[in-house]
Amino acid sequence: MIKNILLFITLLFLGACSVDEANIIGTISNAEDGQWIFLEKLTLNNSERVDSCQIKNEIFSFNYKADSINFYRISESDKNYALIAIQNKDTIEFKADISSLVNFQASGSKEVEGNTQLLEIVNSIKPKIDSLKTIYQKSVGTEDETIVLERIRKRYDSIMLKQNEDLKRFIDENPNLFINLITLQQLGDVSENFIYYQKVSSNLDSLYPNNFWINDIKEKVLSEKNTAIGAQAPDFKINDIKGKTFKLSTLRGSYVLLDFWASWCVPCRRENPLIVDLYKKYHPMGLEIVGISLDDTTKNIDAQADWLKAINQDGLDWKQVSQLKGFESSVCLDYGITSIPSTFLLDENGVIIARNLRGTILANKLKEIFE
Fold it and tell me: What is the pTM of this model?
């Protein structure tokens, strides 16, 4: 009863607050009196704590003047937080349990209500995935393990396909929600979901021009357009292992495989023996390969040495270049690289004719070209 009275009083207080502020009133079950809760503003790479308060009778409140719509975290710790979109004039009611703020419910704005719907879509698959894990664990060490694993993979693909359909439907039904930037993250790869990245980017840019979150998506959309099959591959200048500047366009007249990799990338290293064999076979016929390393000296002081060591260990005799800036390399941004290994196959005119070919699919494509 006391908690309900306090909540009512807090809501009355928020009703008197400035309309130029975002107001959040929260109920956090099982929180202790005096426990701190924080409001953090997010940027692309960092977060900034902008408000804090102590919980009293499981209730907290924030009043914050937001510059424009943005993502914020309501957090108890670095690992326990809820992510919401806030803008001025919002009055948001927030509910969660202190043990798991991520599983919150909220009302008071279209953004947080949409976020609640999005959470329901994302969380709906967790029991199904947990069930698959249990089934697999029971099969480990049995004669049926391989068969069970294959069935689980098919079932997993089916579950994820259904979730992606639900996420796309969510975007279609809520085309102007800022929270769709998170929906895109849930969908994943830009190239496979390009239409939706383009739709969200276009819709939100008209509503919130010059927003840095939206600008980031616009850059990804532009990179995807620039590196689509049939597009002219973006030219670049990068230093090779000897410190000499290499320019991609100098290889015009040859088929070129651009291979984005890193010394620490296990799948990349596993793929290298096949690429070595393909290079030996097709280089005399006109194939060139350019290895573009995502080793990063800002995260590992030995990155350059690790890169050179991997080249020697794996016998990579083709052109090797790197800016040693990881995924922040300008060439990665130009090509929209968000994961590795990633490959682009260019024809003699520098036009992209295939992307992300690996294993036997890559071998068959090169056989088709050269034999």
Answer: 0.73
